[in-house]
């Protein structure tokens, strides 16, 4: 079986969080909540076999095998221990991980999921239909199950494009999945989320999970059908953030500071810290980097543009040099940095911009000489 396709978001040193999709969808199921989850966490989203951009192939006809594929991704990224959240089949994969690899799962969230997804015969019938006719006949009924609100065309397109044999194999996995007698063995802190308008895994399924998993928290979301993260992203994000807990701002700030300014700079700053400056270093790490730079409202490219303008206006040239390098790290090109400084010349004054151009040129020359 080829490795699953996956994408990473959030600071490289952030706490690992893996997000699993529902049958027939792709990692884009999580688009509506991604910014909030990835603000301070290293988020890995994956596609099921034959879904999205994952290759089709044999070897994943049960949830044990699917969990093994997810562990391969975690190992590849060095996630020794991670938080996990999954929708429907994605939630079942999470239950398998928590049961069979308890040391790896820091917490578990099962969204619109179950300990058993109905009678196996129904899944066998769907698998046979898809093997014969593809996923086309599923589009209309899926829209009714998946969404209480406006259908998301992108996710229905993912269903239409799914590889028939891979989809059928996932149906086989759902047919064999039954962890009802093992729920009491799940030791990870668990969040169970139900959509009150979910006809596929109605709230009774969620209550069975919450009653069986020791200490589990149950959240029911009104006006949410089977794909709750797409239907009610704000409510799902709020439930997940409360479950995951707010990361320590110093830890989060250190991760973002290193990602933006580079390990070498941060290591030098730490080495120069004295008893007199320690509180100030802690302040900027927690507040500037842990509170502001981690906010999801602006991406880092935009924050770099704002920062370059402010430093130009105030004439803080040492900080400006530092943030020219940071802007390059955050994805701005030299031409874009030039445009920011030209804009600053209009609104901050030509003398200020003249000095800023000189600082930026010096930094760019140093980088071209191999001094990053």
Automatic annotation (TrEMBL):
<dbReference type="InterPro" id="IPR029058">
    <property type="entry name" value="AB_hydrolase_fold"/>
</dbReference>
<dbReference type="InterPro" id="IPR029032">
    <property type="entry name" value="AhpD-like"/>
</dbReference>
<dbReference type="Pfam" id="PF12697">
    <property type="entry name" value="Abhydrolase_6"/>
</dbReference>
<protein>
    <submittedName>
        <fullName>Putative aminoacrylate hydrolase RutD</fullName>
        <ecNumber>3.5.1.-</ecNumber>
    </submittedName>
</protein>
<dbReference type="InterPro" id="IPR003779">
    <property type="entry name" value="CMD-like"/>
</dbReference>
<dbReference type="GO" id="GO:0051920">
    <property type="term" value="F:peroxiredoxin activity"/>
</dbReference>
<dbReference type="Pfam" id="PF02627">
    <property type="entry name" value="CMD"/>
</dbReference>
<keyword id="KW-0378">Hydrolase</keyword>
<dbReference type="InterPro" id="IPR052512">
    <property type="entry name" value="4CMD/NDH-1_regulator"/>
</dbReference>
<dbReference type="InterPro" id="IPR012788">
    <property type="entry name" value="Decarb_PcaC"/>
</dbReference>
<dbReference type="GO" id="GO:0016787">
    <property type="term" value="F:hydrolase activity"/>
</dbReference>
<feature type="domain" description="AB hydrolase-1">
    <location>
        <begin position="28"/>
        <end position="239"/>
    </location>
</feature>
<feature type="domain" description="Carboxymuconolactone decarboxylase-like">
    <location>
        <begin position="279"/>
        <end position="361"/>
    </location>
</feature>
<dbReference type="InterPro" id="IPR000073">
    <property type="entry name" value="AB_hydrolase_1"/>
</dbReference>
């Amino acid at each position: 079986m080829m490795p699953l396709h996956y994408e990473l978001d959030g600071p490289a040193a952030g706490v690992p969080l893996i997000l699993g999709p529902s049958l027939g969808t792709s990692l884009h199921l999580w688009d509506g909540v991604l910014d909030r989850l990835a603000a301070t966490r290293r988020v890995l989203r994956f596609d099921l076999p034959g879904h999205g951009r994952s290759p089709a192939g044999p070897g994943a006809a049960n949830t044990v095998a699917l969990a093994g594929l997810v562990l391969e991704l975690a190992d590849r990224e060095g996630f020794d221990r991670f938080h996990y959240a999954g929708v429907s089949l994605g939630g079942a994969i999470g239950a398998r991980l928590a049961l069979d690899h308890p040391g790896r799962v820091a917490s578990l969230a099962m969204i619109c999921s179950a300990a058993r997804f109905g009678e196996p015969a129904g899944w066998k019938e769907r698998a046979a239909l898809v093997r014969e006719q593809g996923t086309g006949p599923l589009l209309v009924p899926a829209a009714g199950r998946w969404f209480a609100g406006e259908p998301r065309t992108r996710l229905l397109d993912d269903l239409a494009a799914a590889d028939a044999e891979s989809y059928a194999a996932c149906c086989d996995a759902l047919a064999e999945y039954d962890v009802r007698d093992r729920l009491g063995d799940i030791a990870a802190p668990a969040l169970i989320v139900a959509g009150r308008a979910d006809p596929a895994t109605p709230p009774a399924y969620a209550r069975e999970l919450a009653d069986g998993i020791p200490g589990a928290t149950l959240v029911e979301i009104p006006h949410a059908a089977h794909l709750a993260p797409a239907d009610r992203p704000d409510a799902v994000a709020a439930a997940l953030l409360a479950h995951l807990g707010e990361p320590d701002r110093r830890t989060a700030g250190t991760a973002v500071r290193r990602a933006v300014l580079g390990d070498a700079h941060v290591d030098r700053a730490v080495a120069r810290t004295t008893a007199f400056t320690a509180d100030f270093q802690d302040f900027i790490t927690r507040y500037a980097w842990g509170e502001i730079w981690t906010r999801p409202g602006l991406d880092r490219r935009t924050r770099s543009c704002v920062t370059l303008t402010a430093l130009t206006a105030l004439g803080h040239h040492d900080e400006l040099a530092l943030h020219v390098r940071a802007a390059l790290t955050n994805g701005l090109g030299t031409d874009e940095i030039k445009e920011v400084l030209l804009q600053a010349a209009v609104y901050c004054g030509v003398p200020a911009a003249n000095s800023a151009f000189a600082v930026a040129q010096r930094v760019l020359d140093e980088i071209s000489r191999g001094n990053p």
